[in-house]
Amino acid sequence: MAPRIKIPATKYPVERLTLGNGLRVVLSPDRSAPVVGVAVVYDVGIRSEPEGRTGFAHLFEHLMFQGSENLEKLAHFRHVQGAGGSFNGSTHLDYTDYFEVLPAGALERALFLEADRMRGPRLTEENLRNQVDVVKEEIRVNVLNRPYGGFPWLKLPPVMFETFANAHDGYGSFEDLESATVEDAQGFFDRYYACGNAVLSVAGDFDVAEATAMIERHFGDVPARPAPTLPDFAEPGLDGERRESYTDRIAPLPAVAAGYRVPDPISDFAAYLPFAVLAEVLTDGDASRLVERLVQRDRTATNLGGYLGFMGDEYQVRNPTALLLQAHMPPGGDAGKVLQTIDEELDRLATDGLKPGELARTQARMATRLLHDTDAVLGRALPMAVLELQRGRPGLLNDLPKLINEVGEEQIVAAAATLRPEHRASVEVIPGASA
Amino acid sequence: MKTLPDLLPDAELHLPRESERTLPNGLTVIAIRRAAVPLVEVRLRIPFGRAPLAPATLLSQALFTGTSAMSSIDLAAELQAVGGSLAAGNDPDRLLITGNALADGLDRTLELLASVLTDAAYPAEEVGTERERLVDNIQVALSQPAHLARVALLKRIYGIHPYAVQTPAPEEVRGVEPAALRELHAARVRPAGAVLVLVGDIDPEQAIDTAEKVLGGWTGAGPDGTISATPALETGPLLLVDRPGSVQSSLRMALPGIPRTDPDYAALSLANFVFGGYFSSRWVENIREDKGYTYGSHSLIEHFVAGSTLLAAAEVATEVTGPSLLETLYELGRIASLPPGEEELEQARRYALGTLRLGMSTQAGLAGLASMYAGFGLRLDHLREHSAALSAATREEVAAAAAKYLAPSRAVTVVLGDAEKIEPQLSALIAVERSAE
Questions:
Q1: B354 CB within 8 Å of a chain A CB
Q2: pTM for this prediction
Q3: How many Å is the Cα radius of gyration of chain B?
Q4: Which of A76, A179, B42, B432 is the most exposed place for a label (fewest CB within 10 A)?
Q5: Does the distance separating the beta carbons of A77 and B81 come in below 8 Å?
Q6: A141 lies within 8 A of chain B by CB
């Protein structure tokens, strides 16, 4: 075995400030390429949707692009792209993000656009009806018209969780979407889109003093509004195995996903982190435990993945969350057998420990992925914004390679020992289409 | 009323220096330093034109299953130990190996790559596993509307040309034995004409020296893989492909395309952006933001070595499939008949220029660009020429390109969806022919 390679870390600078109105700001300058990434993250997501309004957080994300105080419908898109940039937004369980990446000379324009919709989007009946239609098409593309649509992120939570907040469909039912009103949207904005409930983050090619002045200029007069009290979404863990299945009428082959609860990602990060490493030990590449066993040796699975957080946002999620394993199977594949083999391999890991070099190489690959992601300005601006929002610690992004590298074998073994079948929820896809 | 801040003018386009050397074995190595993170990106393009489809596809999936000295698991573990990962894929022109690693692991990554290039064993057991996985993955692809629509469109536009079929049928893959992979590898996985691109926190000359040392033993020339030029598009009735039970229709159009080096290319690129090539295009603003028919539509110029095609795609609600086609034909007709507005063109121009800069701002983006260009015989300095051409294109030139390439009369159209529900809507607008399959 080659000598252990040194795990490098990034040293991106991190400047934090808070405006008079309560808006938190994170700045991370880097002059290596003439581009900037701008992210605004609001502390509201799918888990905060009221009953009867499934899918509302995501629908509202669409409405934030439909014009604002000084901007007509379509203007936001045109101004970002007309500055040579790209944009998007996304809705997660615990937050909603909006972001742009642009040539450096467009920074002030991006700040203007974000500030304008933070003051107030144009919530009209016409825009609402238009975006309900668009979101329905989004659901058709991503869920209804494609095999394995919504698997497992929409299918596993209702098996794992009890409360509406944690278990409901984040894309929403057509019925709920269609019955949404402009009043609902205004209420949602008033409650959750307060500047005290948001973080602005900028990464890339800018001068800190100049950017700070621009931020004051554009965001300084956004009316101060405090953040609502964050509810506790905690619920007890499973006290027995849960297994469910459903038929996917388009899918040609079976699949299965399993979830196990993990420690609180925020308040108990030291206990949570080993699970992130464990997921990679189990599933990263052909030399990983479960891929070697299930895909290469037993051929009971064709593809296999493991990760934390239902949306793969392992360091941007709050409690409760889960370690997920998912496998696609060959024709006639047996989900029960796959789960049983996973149990065997977890037992073996918990009993015999890791093989020489197994942990180090997993950590090296995790470092590469983190570094790769942070090479993009948005790969810094976005996670730093969420880390500030949820932890007040944007610099954690720089520390992650080192922290991951410090996870020891005994922690991996202890984590594996908790992944018991009696704490597992699983959902199986039964193919409804012949292969 | 607040006013929109002005844009600061872009700094002059700064292209990173490309170091390049063609080794005695015919492999060209291009190395670029971008040191923002301590990684290195690896791209290796090997000419693969006219390689038999099923063996070529399985070869790309089974390339890393072992050498005479190492099992697939050894290879994966050794790569992982330096933070590395390598994977292969193929298209009708190329075998492409893609990966990255910690910068300190470059030498080891290249050694492992070399061992696979010169000594891939294709062990029967592992090939069997990869063959079944590939068959399963193709089965899943065949249940995806986007894949099925592309299959139908490629067949419709390329006819008997080699580009017509780009995914092998499951039964063809089932018949590929390891011996066929060894044979194909021996004949085609050769350094002559191949291009290796390395981008990252590296000293370019030193990286090339390493590549020369490690890959020098990889030798041999491949046979002529030249593919004849793609045929001109033949228009005709809309091809309707039935997918009973679809809750959306997949609308696809092909229009004439041109290579990046064509004098009309910058003007056509701009015309395409205005029509449907980005979110702020007429097509998206019409069928999504005004009418809510779709989650998204997009058009782009797709390049293969033997020809380029302009493709437009949208997934639209079943009940508005006809109206969506109507609006699409309307927007094509409008861009082909009337010059774009001045502000509209400037917006598209700034987008085109800006995204070029964004695309080269990461190691992976730069590596992808350099490798893709190299696959067409170009180098990064082509970005400078293309930027200049984008800056210079006039409204008249853009209008002329649109009239020439984007006219609806030149479109080949394929729609996949629930034929019973959509055929009456479509045939009210255009001649429709049902797919025989």
A1: yes
A2: 0.97
A3: 23
A4: A179
A5: no
A6: yes
